[in-house]
Amino acid sequence: MPLALLALAVVAFGIGTTEFATMGLLPQIADGIGVSVPHAGNLVSAYALGVVVGAPVLTGIGARVPHKRLLLLLSGLFVVGNIASALAPDFGLLFAARFLAGLPHGALFGVGAVVASRLVTPERAARAVSKMFLGLTVANIVGVPAGTALGQQLGWRSAYVAVAIIGLIALASLAFFVPHQPRGQQAGIRHELRAMGNRQVAIGLGTAVVGFGGFFAVYSYLVPMLTNLTGISDSSTTLVLALYGVGMTLGTLIAGPLTDRALRPTLYGGLALLAAALVTFHFTVHSTVPALLTVTFIGAMGSFITTPVQMLLMAKAKDAPTMAAASNHSAFNLANAGGAWLGGLAISAGWGWASPTLVGATLAVAGLGLAFTGGLMDRGSRHSQVITASGTGASAETGQATAVDDEATHAPEPQAATRDRA
Fold it and tell me: Where in the chain are the domains?
C-alpha cells in the first residue's frame, strides 16, 4: 500500500511540475518561438483548457477500463504531451502540445483518488487521497523551482524533457506497485453520468469553483503584490513561492485525518479560515514578516480544502465516483481562470494591488455558503448514501453503496461505505 500511494504521488508530482513550470519560463519560451510574453501566456490557458475538457471526456471514454490500465494509458498520454511540448517548433504546435499534456490531468487525479481510497480501510480513505495530493504540493516546493532553473540554464525545452522523464518513472511505478482493480458490471459512461446528476455533486463542484476561485484570485497576483506592496525583490519571489508550497504541504497533511474524522466540518472550517486569512493578508501585505506568515497560511488553507471537496464529490456520486473525482479538477481550473479574472478586474478598476485579497475572501465566503447549502440538504434527508470504497471488498468493486445515518457514530462496518458527517 505505501508503495502504491507513492507511485500515485509521483504522478501528481509530475502533473504539478508541468502545470506551473510554464509560468516561470514564459520569457524563455517567448524568445525561443518568437512571440511576446503575453502571447506566450496563452500556453498556460491551453493547458488549463486541456484539463477542463479532458477530465470528463477521458474519464467517460475509459469508464469500462480497469483502473490500473486506465492510469497507465493516461500516464502514457501525459508523457507524449510533454515530449511533444519539448519538440514543438512553433507557437501553434506548442499550443496544441500543451493542450494535449493537460488532457489527462483531471482524469489521472480522479482515477488516482478512487484507487487510493480503495487501497486502505474506509476510515483511512481521505488520508490515502491526501497522500497522493502531497505529490502536487511537493511539486510547488521542489519540482517547479527546479524545472524553472533547469529551463533557464539549459533552455525551456529541457524542462519539458525532465517532466517527461518523471512521467516515465511514474508509469513504471504504477505498473509495478498499483494492484489490479476491476470495474463492476455496472461500469460505463451512462452509469457515471447518472451519478453526476446528483444535486449534491453539482453543489460540490460549485463549491470548488467558487471557493477555490478565492484562493486563485490572490495566488495569480501574489508576485506583483509582494514586489509592489511588501517590497520583496524579484530575486526572492521564488523562495516565497516555495514557502507557499510548504504551507500547501502542511495543509494537505492535516486535512486527511480531519476529513476522515468529520468531512463537512473540515470543509466548513477550511473555507472559513481561508476567507479570514485573505482578509488578514489585506492588512499584513505591507510588512514583510507578517505578510510571509499570512502567505504560508493561505497556502495551507488552499490545499486544506482540496481533500474534503474531493471526498465529498466521491461520496455523493455514490457508486460511480470516478467522473465526479475527475471533474473536480476541471472545477479547479475554472476556479483558476475565474479567480484570476476577477482579481484582475479589481486591480484594473484602480482598487489597488491589495484588492484581490478582498475579492478572494468574498469568493471563499460564497463557497462556504454553497457548502452549507449542501449540508442543510443532507440534514433534510433521513439517510445519506455515500461511498468512497474499501480495500478489495465486494461493495468497493461492484459499486454498491450502503445507506448510513448521518447522525450515527463514526464506526465503519465491514464492506460499508465511508461515512459523510454532515
Answer: 2-379
Q: Judge contact between 282 and 354, C-beta under 8 A.
A: yes
E strand segments, 163-309:
none
**3-class DSSP assignment, residue 385:** strand
- Residue partners of 108: CB distance under 8 A and separation at least 6: 11, 15, 71, 74, 75, 78
Q: CA 384 to CA 366: how far, in whole Å?
A: 24
Task: Spell out the residues 6+ positions from residue 105 whose beta carbon is closer than 8 angstroms to its own.
Answer: 15, 19, 47, 50, 51, 54, 55, 78, 329
Of 195, 115, 147, the residue nearest 25 (C-alpha)? 147
Q: Which three cell numbers stand for residue 115?
A: 484507487
- pTM of the complete model: 0.77
- The answer to which of 50-59, 141-150, 203-212 has the lowest mean pLDDT is 141-150
**3-class SS of residue 402:** strand
Query: Minimum mean pLDDT among 151-155, 235-239, 259-263: which range?
Result: 235-239
State how far the Cα of 216 lies from the Cα of 70, in Å rounded to an integer: 30
Q: Does residue 404 sit in helix, strand or coil?
A: strand
Pick the closest to residue 170 from 43, 262, 269, 79 (CA basis).
79
228 pLDDT higher than 80: yes
pLDDT 10s digits, 251-307: 999 999 999 999 999 999 999 999 999 999 999 999 999 999 999 999 999 889 999
Q: Which fold does the domain 2-379 belong to in CATH?
A: Growth Hormone; Chain: A; (1.20.1250)
Helix H, strand E, coil C: the string for 104-145 is HHHHHHHHHHHHHHCCCCHHHHHHHHHHHHHHHHHHHHHHHH
Task: Please tell me the predicted confidence (pLDDT) of residue 422.
Answer: 39
